[in-house]
């Protein structure tokens, strides 16, 4: 069994303190509004190549209120907007959001997915860890290491990011991703936001991979407390949505006071 090599945190020029980490990267604070995302191993060419793809994707998407802000590229990493309130996953560890707040997050995440899809980007790893929150608890989708598509829909570049099995549209083919696989993962994200935990909490993503895939494939979906979100989430999981805009339409008004808990 392979053991991950321990990589001590280090500070490139301008980095003040450690903030977080990803699979191949550290996140370090530059100042109150900016972070640097950089390889865990200094000069790691593979990690730098993936970060370069992320920069290309962010430039392709352009600025948007629900996409993490891109502030430029350095030789050693990416300058990104700092989300002061961390991720939704971190928020849910210590807080129970209101129904209204959960619905707002669901809509904001969906809007972000619609934006990236229209820009020819497949995220390939939509989850509560990659939904960051600014000081106003506004969602910012981050970690763009998925696929950049050509105008004809073929894959131009692939950062090889892939979903956890609990967000993977069956059959779980690591070589295939499209809008519907992103929307499937969005459904699992909705479930986590509303229920406070991932689908099938009694099953382990690694030890029960085949059973989890079988449940999704046979439409043995976990139920949710909200009838509206149960309906939308199950449609994400069954592949009924062709676009994130269609998901937004089912989520209704962006003013949650008009929706209530139905």
Return the domain count.
2
Distance between the termini: 48 Å
Question: What's the architecture of the largest domain, going by CATH?
Answer: Orthogonal Bundle
Question: What string gives the helices and strands in order?
Answer: EEEHEEHHEEEEEHHHH
Overall pLDDT: 93
Task: Indicate the CATH topology of the largest domain.
Answer: Transferase(Phosphotransferase), domain 1
Largest sheet descriptor:
5 strands, antiparallel
CATH homologous superfamily title of the largest domain: Transferase(Phosphotransferase) domain 1
Q: Determine and state the CATH class of the largest domain.
A: Mainly Alpha
Please compute the radius of gyration using only Cα atoms: 18 Å
Helix content: 25-40%
Q: How many distinct helices? A: 7
Shape: globular
User: Structural class, from secondary structure content?
Assistant: alpha+beta
Strand order of the largest sheet: 1-2-3-5-4
Low-confidence stretches: 255-262
- Strand content bin: 15-25%
Question: What is the number of beta strands?
Answer: 10
